[in-house]
Specification:
The protein is of the alpha+beta class. It is 38% helix and 20% strand. Keywords: Membrane, Transmembrane, Transmembrane helix.
Amino acid sequence: MSSYVIDINNEKQRSLILNICFQILSFPYQEETESLLLGFFEFSSHDDVTKLLQKVFGENGIIIMCHVTKANSKMEFYVNYDKTLLERIMPIIKDWYKPFVNELQNQHNVKVKEWKENYDIDHSEDILRNRIIDNINDLLPGFNYFVDFKWSYNDDNDNNYSVCENEIGDLIFRSDYGGIYLVIETKWLNNNHGDKAKKARIDGINDVKERTLKYKELAKKRFNDIVIGISYTNEKGKDPIHFVDITDEKIFNAIKSNKNKKIKKNESSFDPGLMGFMAGTTITAAGMAGIGILLRK
């Protein structure tokens, strides 16, 4: 009897693993419910799924519990939360996204060349943007791939965001930790003394924060993936980087802490106790099991 092969190039396996990881990223800071249904997937057998999750998640110390529902024989998975969960899923995302990394690097090289040929060396905010692009690995480690600049998104069916000629986003980067994007909006502030300059700074800071939130939402529509929003200014004596919210900051910090760091693999935390639910379970006529995945705090 042949053993089940874990393969990052297997599209079905990769879809399941990355979907679980991305839902974990979006869930713990936004939801008040105890559990969340992530979606349904099909595999040739539930044994294959349990082996896959045990190998990928269990060996990274992530506790996964599962059972098959009696009503429709669908497999439900629960992931227990702890304070290290975000850091532990980051290397999983990075490993399972490797098949796409070479293409990201090629796109990055093309976009950097395009930027260097077109940016205005006498424009204050272009100077800020160029500084970010040249120093992205130090400023925002983990987001190595330049995706776009001076971009717009016009397919807004809800008309919540009006994108016209003078409303364009600044910079977009992408991480090799899966489909996680970084939107950066820049603002050159007046750092002179006096009430007028102070008011202009406050107005500028508020403006760039609003723009960052706006273009984060537009980028989410454009890419249909997780997007982190950051505003970047030259405010004197202040950190130039400001996150849209605490969720974005936590996701970024998890990526940053995992950059070039190998998570120590623990013994499998896969819970075999609930596997008893699966004994004798009848799979669908096509021999495929629907998998319902839920997360629990």
